[in-house]
């Protein structure tokens, strides 16, 4: 089994994710090959909370041009984790 820091890449902080925190939902960028069960165990182990559900989606990278050169941004897998009522992740606490 992989370590939690290998599965959870970084927390996602955006306007939408801040609004979802009021509903006890937290967003993370995760490893592309991570599944929902691994993500659930990683969040529970790292933050000592109870996860109710995990929703994932893979965002394809956009094609970008710089003059005559063309490149592609990397694909990213996002996970929205819903916690049990009363649980909070302290890392996000000062952001809202």
Tell me about this structure:
With 96 residues, the protein is α+β, with helices and mostly antiparallel strands. The chain has a single domain, classed as Alpha-Beta Plaits (2-Layer Sandwich). The protein has helices at 4-7, 15-21, 36-47, 90-93, and strands spanning 8-11, 25-30, 51-59, 63-66, 69-72, 76-83. It has a four-stranded antiparallel β-sheet with strand order 1-2-6-3, sandwiched between helices. Strands 4-5 form a two-stranded antiparallel ribbon. Strand 4 (63-66) and strand 5 (69-72) form a beta hairpin.
The CATH superfamily is known as: RRM (RNA recognition motif) domain
Radius of gyration: 15 Å
Poorly predicted ranges (pLDDT <50, ≥5 residues)? none
Tell the overall outline. globular
Q: Span from first to last CA?
A: 33 Å
* Rounded average pLDDT: 92
Largest sheet: 4 strands, antiparallel
How much strand content do the residues show?
Answer: 35-45%
The CATH architecture assignment turns out to be 2-Layer Sandwich
Structural class by SSE content: alpha+beta
